[in-house]
Amino acid sequence: MTEQRGGRRGQLASSELRPGWTTGACATAAARAAYTALLTGQFPDPVPVVLPQGRTPTFALTAEAQGEGWAEAVITKDAGDDPDITHGALVRVRVSAGEPVGGVGFRAGAGVGTITLPGLPLPVGEPAINPMPRTMIIANLRLAAGLDAEAPDPDLLVTVGINDGEQLAAKTLNPRLGIVGGLSVLGTTGVVVPYSCSAWIDSIRRGVDVARALGHHHVAGCTGSTSEKVAREVFGLPETALLDMGDFAGAVLKYLRRHPIERLTLCGGVGKLAKLADGHLDLHSARSQVDTRFLAGLARQVGADEQLAAAVAQATTALGAVELCAASGIELGDAIAQAARQVAAGVLGEAPVAVDVICIDRAGTIVGHAR
Fold this sequence. Notes:
The protein is built from 11 helices and 19 strands. The chain is elongated. It is of the alpha/beta class.
């Protein structure tokens, strides 16, 4: 599959979604092209690369340049049919020879961030070029040079930049994770699977890692900006203790099961947390729905009569059901929060994590709490 230079193709049917390439794969291709030019004076176009899992795609060059002791190549990222904000971004890699770095060194160019907080896979001060992209780049530089397995890595400096990366990074979780100045160069396989949401889930995991490294004893998994504001106001949590959970409650719980923090608050809209209460770990509207019959059962458990329970079963939203019950003095919101807390505790298993749940309405008013 060849990297595309221009814009996105027309949207395909869901069964024909086109995969794309990660920034790490694009940086690998650009680095190999630049190093080949440094060795031979010629840029390969398209440039072949070897990626994990045996993939051997080729990428077309968008731009190229060469000077004394350096060469630079640019690849336009094609994310396929995934709604990736870096689709169409220009990934720019300069390879400089003769740098006394004892092998291959990496530098953040314009638009690539720098690590400023502990807990990420790289030390503070390093460019945000993740370990797997570094491995892919080095492997392909060695292939370009024809080195055998016993030969040492060449002394090279690889500078990776992304045009407009700092502006794009403002739309990601990078600032919260302590990655400043631009985007991260990501990818474990080199391939972007459409709508896999792997980058979001990875950001959740890195958020937990940063919180642990900073010594936080309490984090909040929040479904959106309103719930983050509530968690801040109720608990006084710093930004680095807030996990942008979105719809991925399961991702938060499963990662904390393996990497525990003493206390977790789940805070979100009552509709989403009603799904968690019903056992759903993916809270997206396309993958789980509020079951008002389930809510009617909860209402009965906390004192609703059959007439009120029937009304709850006919409600069109979880919030509507909560408001019906509140008018009769029945705390359905607390019952939803308690049921969600029980599901969360079940996923956490034996992990030493105390969990509480806050349900809110659209305005951020707390309508349910389970401690």
